[in-house]
Design goal:
seven-stranded antiparallel sheet; mainly beta
Amino acid sequence: TGGSGGTGSGWTSAGKRGKGLLLDGVDDFVNVTTSYRFNTTFSVLLWIKKNTDDWGGSLTNVGYLSKGGTAEGNVQEDEKFSFFHQGGNGWFANWHNSTHLIRYSLQTPPNDKNQHHIVLVFNIDGDNLTNITSYTDGVAQAVGTKFVFGFQEEGKSSTLVIGKSQYAAFNGSIDEVQIWKRALSPQEINASFQAG
């Protein structure tokens, strides 16, 4: 747990299944080394619960999960994908192709302190993110505006980061993080949610 600049995370017995990762919103995060490039369609699944009154308030880019994005230097170009809260604007997901950063706005879950089952399916065709499919508690959510920025992804990082972005850390718990190298079906997603 922890990492460069981090003090390490703790555990809570109130995870969705047994213990869950407890993050203090200051400097807790987890680094996981991976060789997976996230260049083809993939799905991310996690259970998430906030300890604060909102999902990040005015804080800029509270990070939940990303590949890269905490190294020194040009962090935007070091990041392959990310899932985060942007202060005052809700949830977003980023993905880099060889020439651009592609961002989608997402539906933010209910503003409560319950566990929520979140799934994002990044549908990739060649060097293009065609769309993101978002699910909260087993139900498909509307995906909003697509943004394209001129940051070239340099692919420097081999680190999957849980609980932090280059700007801010998450205050809450994250549990049962899963990465699938394919699109999960609506039936699989609903079954995962129902299984708890």
